[in-house]
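Two folds, back to back.
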Amino acid sequence: MAEYDKWDIKKLHILRTLRERGTVTATAEALLLTPSAVSQQLTNLAKQLGVTLLEAQGRRVRLTDAAELVLRHAEAVFEQLERADAELTAYEHGEVGEVRVGAFSTAVPALVVPAVRALRTARPGISVQVREAEAAEAYELLGAGAVDLALSLAAQAPSVVDSRFTRVPLLADPLDLALPREHPLAVAPAVRLADFAAESWIFGGSGPWSEITRGACETAGFTPHQGHSAAGWTAILAMVEAGMGVALVPRMARVRREGVVMRELAGDRPHRHVVAAVRRGAEEGAAVGRVLEALREAAAGLGERR
């Protein structure tokens, strides 16, 4: 008979977090532990399992093949525990409970708020706690258990082979081009992204929005020259209005500014894909499932209004 007591769930969670965060220090910060406690727990887990889990690699540590094998099986355990927790909660409370949602800024008014309003009427026993988070951070929070559901952009969503999460596509959000009102193409009958290959572009220096802007321009046949870097729409549109460059703006953001013309792009119109994610197995919980359903309905309604 297998010695089940050597499979310590808490220690496996520490090992899993180390794989995600990369260093013992980052793992300790994520789990609110000290680095020495993390090291001690992983040393004990290695002794319990009878295999080497970590190898020194300069000042960092690397997971061994044995550690990857252990985690491959542990992921199935974590998924089953999420499912069990969801079913137990449903058994005890039915459609009652709090769901913590992490969402990027433009998704909050466009999707989360309409979903919360709908749930107040249809499922009053379910409450939603919203936490605004950048696209990449939302998945870190989800993996750490700080939120139950993450809304993010496809550029930052976990890959389809990431066994930790279940992804739910919500919306393909069109991107419009923001031009200064006096720009020669502001009143053109139609504009294409390629028409602006020589322009100065305004977008963030890193993160999903940078990836989305660069990817859209490269698909149109050119690499955008980043004249200015900004993350907030107020700053971006102020610079566009001043004639400092052009920018892609998501339709969902619904941002408008005097002196800025928003043009739909013909032919090669790019989109950003909005997705929701939960820890695999958690989608079967009544409360989380209802919030996902409400978000899908809010996304469908947004699409119809366009």
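---
second:
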Amino acid sequence: MARRTALVLTAALLASSALTACSTKNPAPGPSSAEKGGSGGTITLGFAQVGAESGWRTANTKSVQEAAKKAGIALKFSDGQQKQENQIKAIRTFIQQQVDVIAFSPVVESGWDTVLKEAKDAGIPVILTDRAVDTKDTSLYKTFLGSDFVKEGKSAGEWLTGAYANEQGPVNIVELQGTTGSAPANDRKAGFADVIRADDKFKIVASQSGDFTRAKGKEVMQAFLKSQKDIDVLYAHNDDMALGAIQAIEESGKKPGTDIKVISVDGIKDAFVAMTEGKINVVVECNPMLGDQLMELTKKVAAGESVPTRVETVEGVFPQDKAAAALPSRNY
């Protein structure tokens, strides 16, 4: 009897062992990114930044880093140094690391479909920040958080047409474009051109990329001053290029803001200081403080919640006479 009991127990143990082995061979799937985010686990966000080409970008990076810390989100950060290949490499690294969400600010608009499809195939949602991508497949990303760059260009053009409404032409404009192929460069140019083309007294006599940097802005403006006899207005796609150009204007013996009107986009503190000094006439704001909104969206997409395909930031236009009052509130 004891022997039979022992045999039964042994058989039971072997059956149990076999069941355990089956379970080990075919384990139940672990929690998805959505389940992880929804259950209060730590979310990991991979963020591929453009670089550190401007004061705006530095403020944007700081906003993302501080907001992630505050939200309890683990941030994997990559600086693309203004090169698309670096950003693509970073995104592929994030995919290999199986982060929960990928966010990035694309240095240029085109050429992202392949890597975004890799992220989609891996089940990792993507958020675009600050800049959009040019793709026919909008399922490759969940949402785009950022400014309306066309609207910014139009705001710059509207200020200009208003300022010269009662003057005869021609009004000769030089344009410092942002990084070639980037969304803000393309859209700020298009929006501005759309407004000024209604009056043929406004003429863009020279237009060239200053790559969104202060040094390049100065260099290109020096070339403009040598090649163009009469310049009435400078339209810069960002403040850093405008500030570099102001140095070139001053070194040429002219007065920025007076001899050459200066229109800029972004709204960094240095630009507001230049406005109080009369060197910039108007700044169209582009808000870099996207961190909190990005973390909110990250939590939602990680939890599998639906989000709007477009989330726009709130911004304003600051002419010279509003600069002094607004300056103390500029945190970047």
